Amino acid sequence: MKTVKITALRKIEYADLMAQYENPIAHTCHVHEGQSWISTNGKCPENFCPEAWKSIKEFVEALARGEGNFFDGWMKNPHSAMISCNDGFRPVSFYLESID
Fold it and tell me: Is the whole model's pTM more than 0.70, yes or no?
């Protein structure tokens, strides 16, 4: 199995949508741009957002198995993917890449 590095490259917050549709919540996304994690054996890294993991899990597992070239050459590096979490109010874009 390959090691996969997960890097939070971009986090956007849609204040207008939050004001219009979201109930106030005490805990919001704790991910910050530039943070990175290491997935070994295709497993969720410690302290990684469980909801974000649901969005990226299949891609991390595939990269760990040595697969890639998702969507017929979508990425310049065939052993990588750019996947966003499913939070519609504050999505985070994660860059996933095999590193060994």
Answer: yes
Give the residue numbers spanning the domain of 33.
4-98
Overall number of domains in the chain: 1
Q: How far is Cα 87 from Cα 53, in angstroms, rounded to an integer?
A: 12
Three-state SS annotation for the chain: CCCEEEEEEEECCCHHHHHHHCCCCCCCCCCCCCCEEEECCCCCCCCCCHHHHHHHHHHHHHHHCCCCCCCCCCCCCCCEEEEECCCCCCCEEEEEEECC
pLDDT digits (tens, 9 = 90+) for 40-84: 999 999 999 999 999 999 999 999 999 999 999 899 999 999 999
